[in-house]
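Weekend entry, working from home. Most of the wet-lab plans are on hold until the incubator is repaired, so I used the time to fold the two sequences that have been sitting in the queue since the last round of cloning. Logging both here for the record. First:
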Amino acid sequence: MRTFLMTTIAAVGLMTSSCAQAGATTDMSKAEIEELVRAYILENPEIIRDAIIKLQEKEVVQEQEINRESILAAKDALENDPRDMSIGPKDAKVTIVEFFDYNCGFCKRATPWVEEAVAKYDNNVRVVFKELPILDDRTKTSRIASRAALAAGRQGKYTKMHFALMEHKRLSGDIIRQTAEDIGLDMRKYEADLADASIDQHINDTLQLANRIPALTGTPFFIVGGEYISGADIARLEEVVEAKLKS
C-alpha cells in the first residue's frame, strides 16, 4: 500500500509540474493549476491507474535487463565451471543451468522434467546442476545433501545420488547416508570426500555466484542463455528452451 501511495503521489507531482510549466505564460497561479489538475484527476481517476501500470511495466523491463546483463557477465561461471556436475552432451545446442536446494519442494516438482530433458530434446540440451543450499538454516540438511551429492560425483554417481535425494520429501542425515549406501558408493571414500574442504568451497562459490543475479532469490532458478525462469514454471521453461533450439 505504501508503494502504491508513493507511486501515485509521484505521478500526480509530475503532472502538476508539467502543467505548471505549460501554464508559465498564463496568469494562473500554481495553486489554481494544482486545483485544476486535482479536479481533472477526480473526474478521470483512471489516468492515475494507467500511469502506475505504465511505470510498473517500465520497472519490470528495467529489472529484466539488469538480470540479463548479470547473467551474461557470469556466463562462463554459470555454464563452464569444471567442478559442476551435468547431464547431456557438452556441445549441446542449449545449456540449461539449474540452481536448486534438495529440501525445496518446488525443485522436487521440477525434477522429473529435468531428469527427462536430455532425452526429450534428443541430446540437444545439457543441464548444469548448481548446488544452492539456501534452506540450510531451516532444514539443517540442505548443505550436507549438496556435499553428499558432490562426493558421490567423485565416484561417477552424481546423477544417481541427485535424483535419489530429490525423491525424498524430507531429508535427514540418516536418509542421506542410507541413500549413499543404496546407490553403491564406496563409503570409506565417500566419507573422506564428504569432509574435503574443496567441496565446501565449491558450494560457497556457487552461493556467491547466485548473489550476482538480483532475481535469484529462491529455488529452483533456471537460466537458459540470457533468459531466466524463477520457480517450477515448466511451461515457461519449455517455451524458452524450444525457442533457443529454433534460433
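Second, folded right after the first finished:
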Amino acid sequence: MKQLANKQILLGITGSIAAYKACELVRLLRDSGSDVRVVMTQAATEFVSPLTFQALSQNPVHRTLLDETAEAAMGHIELARWADAVVIAPASADSIARLAQGRADDLLGAVCLATPAPVAIAPAMNQQMWLDTATQENIALLQKRGLHILGPATGDQACGDVGPGRMLEPQIIREQIAGLFETGALAGLTVVITAGPTHEPIDPVRFISNYSSGRMGYALAEAVVEAGARCILISGPTHLPIPYKVQRVDVQTAQQMHTAVMEEMSNCNIFIAAAAVADYRPAETSTQKIKKDQQQLRLELVRNPDILQDVTGSHPEVFAVGFAAESGSVEHYATQKLSQKKLRIIIANDISRTDIGFDSPDNEVVVYWQGGSKQLPKASKPQIARQLAAMIADHYNESQ
C-alpha cells in the first residue's frame, strides 16, 4: 500500500460494536506508512477505550469540540486542515443522519464540515436500520455531496440478524482509502517535473546552491502519479526518497538539468518546473581545493541556461507550468514571468515568510494564468500538490 505512505488520515469512530475493528484499521494504516489521528464520539468510547487508539496510533485521541490546548481553541479547524482524508469507520446510523443534516455540534461533525479533504464513511448497523428509507435517503444525499461510501458488507451481525450492514473488513477499507487518492485526471499523460536545488561547483569541495529541499517538486510527482500520469522527476541533490511509481533522473548542476529536461520533451505533455535552479555558476571550476591563503577571493559568475524559457521556445506544444519564489512584489514578478516565458500557469509563493516555502513542510501559493488566479491557503505540501495537480489537469484539458 505505497499509495498510503506519508498520508495523513483522520479516522472518525462512532458508536457501533464494530468500533473494535477500527483498532485493526489503525494498525494497517500505520503499517502502510500513514500518520493516523483518531476522533471518537462519546458513544464510541463506550465500546473501545480512547487509550487503546492512542497506543495504536501513537497520537492523542481527540474527543471534544472545544479544545483549550489547540490554537485559538479551534481543534476542529486544525484537524480539518491536517487531514489528507477523513474516514469514519464505523459510521453508525446516527452519525450518518447527523452528517446528512450538516450537524456540527460535536468534533467529528465539525471536522467533516470544515475539511477540504475527501470524506469517506464505512457504515455499520443492523440490517433493518441499513435498509430503512431514512438511512437510504441519507446515504443518497451524502453521495450527492461527494462523500465516499465504503460498503457495507452482508453477513452475520452482532444482534443475531443476517443481512447488509456489516462494516467492511479493515483490509478492504484500507484498499478503498488508498483509492481515494487515485483520481485519473491525468491518465495517459507524461508529466516531467524538476525538483530540488542545483549545485554549481567552485572546487572539489565547495559549490553554490540554495535552500530548496525539493519537497514541493517531490509532492507534485506523487500527486500527478495519483492522478494517473507517467511521471519523470528530474531532481537536483536531495535526501528525499523516490515517490511511488516515479522515474527519477538525478542531476547535480543546472546544465545537467537542462540537458536531462530537453531529452524528455519530445514525449512530454506537461512540464512543471518546480526546481530552484541556480541562475549563475562559476565561470571556472578549480580542479584542486582552493586554499585559504588570500584575504579576498573573487569569483566570476556566468548565466546558466534558462530551462523553462528553452522549453517553451522549442516545444510550444508542451503545457508548461512554472514557479515563482519571490521575496517581494510576488504578484508583479509572477505575472511578468507568466507572460515573458509564455507559460500556461505559474505558481507563486512568498519566500520571505518563514512558515512556508524553502525547507518547510507547508506552503501557501497563488496560482496565476492568463485571465485569472486562485489562492491556495496554507497547507502541507502534499495537500497543496494534490490541489495543484487537479488545477493543472483542468487547465490542460481545457487547452486541448
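Plan for Monday: verify the second prediction. The chain has a mean pLDDT of 94.
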